Amino acid sequence: MPKPSASGDSMRKDASRKSPHRSTVATLLSIEAGIVLALGLWLVFFSITHENEELAPLLGEISFAAIGALGLFVAGRGYARGKNYGRSPAILANLIALGVAYYQIQGRFYIGAVIILVLAIPTLFLAFSIAKSEG
């Protein structure tokens, strides 16, 4: 009687350890990526419709938004596929988002802070719980 391969057993073991919250985190990261991309596109529109804007900082912000949206999207795909390469970037991006929300509260821009907090807090909680359950 042939023995099952070690790789087959480890694959079943890995599949059973995957958290059911992965799809929720992937969805939240995709929403965050869409928001960041929309902000970048708004900056493009803003640069076309307004005059007297500094070009270099504006291009930097637009490229930073595009790279950030791409990074969040890739992290979300990693979570959806059950990979771990999206874990650290997702946690780091949402910790940064908490800092941004703090400064928005300090600037009395409460609606922006609430939007960020509504996305960042559940994403962080679920990402940390996934990391804890999967090891």
Brief overview, please?
The chain is mainly alpha-helical and 135 residues long. It has helices at 6-17, 22-49, 55-80, 87-106, 110-134.
Describe the 3D structure:
By secondary structure, the protein is mostly helical. It has one domain (22-134). The protein has five helices and no strands. The protein has helices spanning 6-17, 22-49, 55-80, 87-106, 110-134. Helix 2 (22-49) runs antiparallel to helix 3 (55-80) and helix 4 runs antiparallel to helix 5. The two termini are 34 Å apart. Mean pLDDT is 86; it is low at 9-13.
Question: What is the topology?
Answer:
Elements: H1 6-17, H2 22-49, H3 55-80, H4 87-106, H5 110-134
Helix pairs in contact: 2-3, 2-5, 3-4, 4-5
